Records
---
Amino acid sequence: MESRQSELNSAFLQIIRSREKVLSRDVLQGYVEDFLTKKEIYLESDRRFGAPQYFFDRTSLAQKADQFDAACSRHLDRYQIFYAMKSNSFRRIIDHITSCGMGLDVSSGHELSMALATGCQKIIFSGPGKTDEELGLAISHPQQVVLLMDSPGELSRLAKLVGQRVRSKGEIRVGIRVQNVQGGIWNKFGIPLFDVTKTFINALSIKGIDPCGIQFHTSWNLNPAAQVKMIDQIGSYIVRKMPEDISRRLKFIDIGGGFWPEHGEWLNAQNTDKGTLLAHVKPAFKFNKTHYIREARPIDYFLKKISWAISRPGNPLQGLEVWMEPGRWISTPVMHILLKVIDKKGSRIVITDGGINIMGWERPLTEFIPIINLSQPGLKELSTMVFGSLCTPHDVWGRSFFGTGIKVGDVLLVPDQGAYTYSLRQSFIKAKCRVVQYDGNCLEEVERQEY
Ligand SMILES: Cc1ncc(COP(=O)(O)O)c(C=O)c1O
């Protein structure tokens, strides 16, 4: 009991003493300036198609996909990239990804159907809670789909379904997902490492299944430490516990996604650990307006460290093809949101024509997202509550904007909102909004506003 109390005290003190790094004005203004250089195209998109809208920047997508691939090719001999469709499932993103030879990482029958409809030839199906129907769809496309097994129970359901197949269409390639190092609620995913050999032996006994890989996924990685730790643990487990006739069958190690975009995680004072604690203890506490940053490492650094970990002498993962499932690293800068100020209340409150259901979740409550006034451009950050149009006071886009002033009719840009927004959007009160594509030359409405 006493040790539990001292553990709690020390965690509490650690939070109280923590100091987050301040986000410098220069970095912030440079970021805003960059978007302001392109303001005419955003304004034209608003004039022609209206707000709110997702502004889909196709050139940015091509750049990010190329950059990720180039970084992989600098550090890895044999690799495959499977874009995590859940991070943004907009059809034109998926089409581009498949056209440049990448595969898709899907997590449901719905995503799998979309992936198959694009003609994608390399699909991995991972995630918990796969239904028999979803497994059935996967095994009817053995050439395209590799199934990543999340539990022994799922494997036995798969065995039944494979046994019921009328005609053999080829072996079902299967990987085993390993539980990751974070523990706690993360144990929801995968199979404990100590059970992996047993699961492989079970899989090998099922006719029609080819168990040939291992997968893990760690989330929210500002640096590659968690991925490297997993690679080390799996490598040493294989050396110590996996019979050679099984390890020889391994063809891939799938290191999942979770690569954090390079500009890092930006926070308001109330989003830091200390701020969150303070807000609970004293809800009326007035936070300062400083922004904070949790820095992220560049993608080259991730891949260098991952490659080193895999090729350490004696690591049995060395000869395997490395599979990756990046989502947000690719999709974050691919979409921006355009809003229009529809109402102003006093000098410090504006209401926009779109609610944060365009993002699908209350993202601005947990991080700092700069809002850029394209109609009155400027690098000064001015305090104003920028609300959405929903019937909840938590529908807040931000507490400030960059510009020289703000009035009804102004067009606002919420930049870099490509990840976990479009695929989470809801038609709550307001309809799902339109998507406008910019390919570097032309603007085109590619998905209409739903009414
Ligand atoms: C199994 C798996 N792979 C890949 C991803 C993509 O993660 P991210 O978008 O952080 O790269 C996720 C996200 O939840 C995931 O669960």
Note: The longest helix spans residues 58-75.
---
Amino acid sequence: MSEENLYTFENPEYRKTFWHTSSHVMAQAVKRLWPEVQLAIGPAIDEGWYYDFDAPFSFTPEHLAQIEAEMKKIVKERIKLERSELPRAEAIAWAEAHNEPYKKELIEDLPEDAVISFYTQGDFTDLCAGPHLDHTGRLRHNGFKLTKSCGAYWRGDSNRKMLQRIYGIGFPSKDELDAYLTAQEEALKRDHNKLGRELEFFTTVEEIGQGLPILLPKGARVIQTLQRWVEDEEQKRGYLLTKTP
Ligand SMILES: [Zn+2]
């Protein structure tokens, strides 16, 4: 990748950094709105980012709209992200003082010789290894969207507490965001799971499980037709069939 393309959205590393910084902005917005909410982790993912929170209430679409509005402010404030390090004991003391038990657990699990780094953006500090963009103004106030919230176990362990995960997606422009959201809507319309049910090709029942579709007459007919076509085609092309026990 050439030097001038390094800090563009086309560079996957930059894109991850962009999305990960967005997760910090989202967490900052949540803490500004509800300081009692506790923070877990907030990575970039293949498309966008998420952050897991422990909140005393369930995030609704109205909450997400509130968080988005606060995030827009933070982007416009162009706040610098500044890195700092703390020795282990002080890092743990920080987590305790800020009532962040999940961060405390993460620090305690780091190897003894690990460098424990924090990133501060104005009124918000997060335990994090980085990297991030240099200031929040690198994001676009109209270029992101919080797409959904759902339950997620702390550390993916069903014996641990169920936290709430908020997903977001963002781009360097509103046009790119709109194009992404439109494509998502179109994909949803073509979703096999949705179409297959609407066309009465298959259904599922709780007793059997969502992963095991029951083919209805129309769906079974489609499979039968395809199978016949494949068998006829094989014969035409000279394949010889065998059956083994
Ligand atoms: Zn970070």
Note: The chain has two domains: 3-189, 192-245.
